[in-house]
């Protein structure tokens, strides 16, 4: 009996060891470094300095950090709303009865996911938003209009980044919603139609309640990846050698520019730990909300 | 049976997962040093040394070819991606670190402060550098200690499309007039990476300003720096707002820009694209009488402190070989950059290469990129200032003060 209880743990051991090595250990090690003065002047001989790095880290959380935090919340919210709405619309269209070659469309829609994010972002930067060579300004000029400096202004840069994020994130969301829609038994809709229900009634009373448990984990994952998005904002507006002047820092790009470039690993680790804790609290809160919503 | 299989798979998976953690039992890059280990051998075994580099494979091949000539030293020139990070991790570990590495001079201070570098003069006499261009030696010197054996350098040049510009401007005022007159219908008189620190600094130097000095003091709010920002601003009006590398180089290579300031490789690419490229000295700023003075990057070899003491003679032999003009000539043939050793210019290939000779001609006027660790934070701070002034019409004085304050904070945060 005792042996039977232990056996599952034995089978789990390899996975737990791998998770411990690649997830838990780096977090613990970052926590350890955050209490030392590990920087280029004490690279191989760091010493314990208590909470000094944390005290210094809170100076990073100045007015610039607060506006970056608010911008990140707005960025996350806007992106989630757009992703859900557009992905839902596309998924519904893909599930239209009688649609020919829908597998071809699905494959095409997955393309942005197949490309490395870094390449996609730089293609958007040079191919679409570039003032000189970008497709958008070429079109405007053909129409006799002046080109727009898409990535220079704060608002236009923010919207441009949102567009690129949408392009990159849609395949995942479409795939999830498409799968969720296909799992709904068509009999529900047929019965509702016989009862005289319209599109919105069916949407509210059948589709949403049935797809919600399937989509919820994907939404949580996407909220976090959007919240800690770095590549898009950094590569489009902050990349060294081609900064555009737009100040649309998110929490991650702001702390990167304030702390990580200093080569002070103790200090950077302290900031990482604070952001990590913020995300953990955020995660617990979101999970609680979802659990309550599913009841 | 199922249980046995599951148990077997668990153990197999665990072993597989941990395989990567195993330390190589084979020869380490620094293994087999000379000395006692060879005492029993009848014939003296050559000493093995490893050199890391991150550049193009052709550069590594040329170095390898040069060092294969050494009789008693077996050198392995090994390409290493993300070498900067790798050196930070293993720079003091004789089992994992190389003995030497080939890299640009601007990280000298960083590695010296980390304590992983050995002074070059521990292996090779200062007299060996009597024929070297002084600027190249200054570049690899940190806190009065020479850490880099310079091999070649590169810097920015004024280059122009002979079809679009008949006479290159001697002054910046002439350049501005030319840009005003010739910028129309998608064509430009002059383009540069105007908001990139590496390029914009040449304007600062011409006004007596700078990004950071050798004592790690930022100079972004100096009068000279602010004056350069103000003076430079009208030039931006006649250039694409992007100001990034891809846009500016594409315009020059496509024959849409009459002139530019850039690195030698652009001249090579433009010639391959059919542009008749001319070179001229960097224009002089009328207001100060000084020419634009860009940064220079010096490529050379460093010795790691962790390299075992038994290899001192072998390392000295490698350095002596690379200090010869032949090394600079061989690499110049690949890179079109200028050898650090003056004797290399007696070679007919070098002396007939217009690009190389232009670089050599500017050696006294250029400024080696700062090699202090604090420079790492200055790139971003300076570019934020430049993009605010050049792209968002920010006030030069206000932006310079803001940038100086940020720079001081970040330099303090490094410690």
Sum up the structure in keywords.
heterodimer; A: about 300 residues; mainly alpha; MetI-like fold; 12 helices; B: about 425 residues; alpha+beta; D-Maltodextrin-Binding Protein, domain 2; 8-stranded mixed β-sheet; 3-stranded antiparallel β-sheet; about 15% strand
SSE order and pairing:
The complex is a heterodimer of chains A (295) and B (415).
Chain A: H1 2-33, H2 52-60, H3 63-94, H4 102-114, H5 117-129, H6 135-142, H7 154-182, H8 186-194, H9 199-227, H10 231-238, H11 251-258, H12 265-294
Chain B: H1 2-19, E1 47-53, H2 57-67, E2 73-79, H3 83-90, E3 100-104, H4 108-114, E4 117-118, H5 134-139, E5 141-142, E6 145-146, E7 149-155, E8 157-161, H6 172-182, H7 197-206, H8 223-236, H9 245-253, E9 259-262, H10 264-272, E10 277-280, E11 295-304, H11 312-323, H12 325-335, E12 338-339, H13 348-352, H14 354-361, E13 367-368, H15 375-392, H16 396-413
Parallel strand pairs in B: 1-2, 1-3, 11-13
Antiparallel strand pairs in B: 3-11, 4-11, 5-6, 7-11, 7-12, 8-9, 8-10
Helix pairs in contact in B: 2-12, 7-8, 15-16
């Amino acid at each position: 009996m005792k042996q039977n209880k232990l056996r599952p743990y034995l089978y789990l051991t390899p996975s737990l060891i791998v998770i411990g090595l690649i997830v838990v250990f780096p977090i613990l090690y970052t926590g350890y470094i955050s209490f030392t003065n590990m920087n280029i002047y004490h690279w191989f001989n760091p010493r314990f300095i208590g909470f000094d790095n944390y005290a210094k880290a809170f100076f990073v959380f100045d007015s610039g950090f607060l506006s970056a935090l608010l911008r990140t919340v707005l960025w996350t919210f806007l992106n989630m709303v757009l992703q859900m709405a557009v992905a839902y619309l596309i998924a519904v269209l893909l599930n239209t009865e009688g649609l020919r070659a829908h597998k071809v469309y699905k494959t095409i829609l997955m393309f942005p996911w197949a490309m490395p994010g870094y390449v996609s972002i730089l293609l958007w930067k040079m191919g679409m938003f570039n003032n000189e060579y970008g497709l958008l300004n070429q079109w405007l000029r053909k129409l006799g209009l002046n080109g727009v400096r898409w990535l220079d202004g704060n608002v236009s840069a923010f919207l441009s980044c949102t567009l690129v994020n949408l392009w990159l994130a849609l395949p995942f969301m479409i795939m999830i919603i498409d799968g969720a829609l296909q799992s709904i038994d068509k009999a529900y809709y047929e019965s509702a139609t016989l009862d005289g229900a319209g599109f919105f009634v069916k949407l509210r009373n059948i589709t949403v309640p049935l797809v919600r448990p399937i989509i919820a984990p994907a939404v949580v994952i996407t909220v976090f990846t959007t919240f800690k998005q770095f590549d898009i904002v950094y590569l489009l507006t902050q990349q060294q050698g081609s900064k555009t002047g737009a100040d649309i820092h998110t929490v991650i790009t702001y702390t990167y520019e304030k702390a990580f470039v200093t080569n002070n690993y103790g200090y950077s680790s302290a900031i990482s730990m604070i952001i990590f804790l913020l995300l953990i609290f955020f995660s617990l809160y979101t999970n609680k909300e979802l659990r309550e919503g599913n009841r | 049976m199922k249980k046995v299989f599951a148990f077997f798979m668990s153990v197999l998976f665990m072993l597989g997962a941990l395989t990567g953690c195993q330390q190589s039992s084979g020869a380490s890059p620094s293994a087999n040093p000379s000395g006692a280990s060879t005492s029993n051998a009848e014939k003296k075994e050559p000493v093995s040394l490893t050199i890391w580099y991150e550049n193009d494979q052709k550069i590594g091949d040329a170095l390898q070819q040069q060092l294969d000539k050494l009789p008693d030293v077996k050198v392995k020139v090994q390409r290493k991606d993300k070498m900067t990070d790798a050196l930070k991790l293993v720079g003091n570990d004789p089992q994992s670190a190389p003995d030497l590495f080939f890299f640009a001079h601007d990280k000298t201070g960083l590695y010296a402060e980390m304590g992983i570098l050995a002074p070059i003069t521990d292996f090779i006499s200062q007299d060996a550098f009597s024929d070297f261009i002084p600027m190249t030696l200054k570049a690899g010197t940190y806190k009065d200690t020479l850490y880099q054996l310079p091999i070649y350098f590169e810097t920015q040049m004024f280059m122009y499309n002979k079809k679009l510009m008949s006479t290159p401007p001697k002054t910046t005022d002439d350049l501005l007039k030319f840009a005003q007159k010739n910028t129309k219908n998608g064509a430009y008189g002059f383009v540069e990476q105007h908001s990139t620190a590496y390029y914009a600094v040449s304007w600062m130097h011409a006004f007596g300003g700078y990004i950071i000095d050798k004592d790690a003091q930022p100079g972004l709010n100096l009068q000279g720096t602010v004056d350069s920002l103000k003076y430079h601003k009208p030039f931006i009006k006649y250039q694409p707002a992007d100001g990034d590398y891809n846009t500016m180089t594409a315009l020059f290579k496509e024959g849409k820009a009459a002139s530019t300031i850039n690195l030698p490789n652009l001249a090579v690419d433009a010639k391959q694209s059919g542009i008749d490229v001319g070179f001229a000295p960097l224009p002089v700023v009328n207001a100060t009488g000084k020419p634009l003075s860009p940064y220079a990057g010096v490529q050379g070899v460093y010795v790691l402190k962790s390299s075992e003491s038994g290899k001192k003679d072998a390392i000295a032999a490698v350095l002596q070989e690379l200090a010869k003009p032949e090394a600079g000539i061989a690499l110049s043939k690949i890179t079109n950059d200028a050898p650090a050793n003056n004797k290399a210019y007696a070679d007919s290939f070098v002396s007939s290469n217009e690009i190389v000779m232009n670089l050599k001609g500017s050696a006294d006027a250029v400024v080696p990129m700062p090699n202090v660790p604090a420079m790492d934070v200055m790139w971003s701070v300076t570019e934020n200032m430049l993009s605010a002034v050049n792209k968002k019409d920010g006030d030069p004085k206000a932006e310079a003060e803001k940038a100086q304050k940020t720079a001081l904070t970040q330099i303090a945060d490094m410690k």
